[in-house]
Amino acid sequence: MQVNTAPTHSSAHLPGPHQYDWWREAVSETHLPWDLPRRSEGSYRARVRQQALGVSQIIHCACDPCEGRRGKAEIAQLQNPVYGILYILRGRESLKQAGRETVLEQGSFTLWDSTRPIEFGLPQDLEKITLLLPQDLVAEMLPMAPDLVMRPISGQRGPGALFATHLRALAREGNDLIPSRATPVLRATLDLLTAAIAPLEVDSDSSYHRALRARTQDFILRNLDDPDLDPDQIASGMGISARQLHRLFHDNGLTVDRWIWRQRLQRCRDDLLSRPQARISEIAFDRGFSDAAHFSRAFRDAFGVSPREYRRGK
């Protein structure tokens, strides 16, 4: 990486009465449009540094207490939606979005969505790093991202600590990388973010859990004919851990392998009638089975008749 040459801008160069107004404008220029209420107090300490990392932006700032919001008017000003990764270096920040409220303490981070209303409050001096990432880029690695906003993650242990260390290094050292270098750095950043978010434990009855299970099942169905489809491939494709994947199905009374097996058998059963000229072994292989004899036994166990008998209407 290159040495950081991005300048730091500060309210200190202005007379006291104008410092907060400067900060109101600086927040919207660096962190997307925000509405910070006006105030008539005197001096206000704030500083900010913004730098590009390929298609993303990294903002490192520190400021006195304040509050703000993004409503419909602010959201409408942004054409390309992003996700923000907010990491607290010092202080505390309260946030409200998507029906959730969270308080981030020093050393923790969370994900927020530029397309939904959000409010924040700083009860004390704060220093933080914000990484702004295009939503389509995040969706490639974290398709369940809309369900993960406002979930606090510790940056002091486990995968979260690895991501936090990486983020601090980006804010300190990464500046205007050429595209050929920025792309792999961003990919590594998303890999670490995925590893940090994947272990999140959630209630099996929560809307997040149900949405994630539905998306995972859809992913499986789209790849069902791949004979190499297995839990590791599914977990990787969904950007979740193998442990979380198995829990999604265990809470529903099935193992992942058993659910895949059932779906393949049901497709084979439909094909036996809709493809009367196809050999039974051909249908089995087309639907992801690798052994015709095993398929026949599994079909009989599931439906009480052999594939041949089923096709004949017996």
Q: Helices, strands, pairings?
A:
Blueprint: E1 8-10, H1 16-30, E2 46-53, E3 56-63, E4 66-70, H2 72-76, E5 82-90, E6 93-97, E7 100-104, E8 108-113, E9 118-122, E10 126-134, H3 135-141, E11 153-154, H4 158-173, H5 179-197, H6 207-222, H7 231-238, H8 242-250, H9 256-274, H10 280-286, H11 292-303, H12 307-312
Antiparallel strand pairs: 1-2, 2-3, 3-10, 4-9, 5-8, 5-10, 6-7, 6-9, 8-11
Helix pairs in contact: 4-5, 7-8
Give a quick precis of the structure.
It is built from 12 helices and 11 strands. It has 314 residues and is an alpha+beta fold. A hairpin with a 2-residue loop joins β6 and β7 (100-104).
Strand order across the largest sheet: 1-2-3-10-5-8-11
Beta content comes to 15-25%
Rounded mean pLDDT score: 86
Q: Helix count, per DSSP?
A: 12
Radius of gyration, in angstroms, nearest whole number: 25 Å
The span between the termini is: 70 Å
Structural class, please?
alpha+beta
The backbone outline, from C-alpha atoms, is elongated
The description of the largest β-sheet is:
7 strands, antiparallel
Helix content percent band: 40-55%
Which residue ranges are poorly predicted, with pLDDT under 50 across at least 5 consecutive positions? 1-5
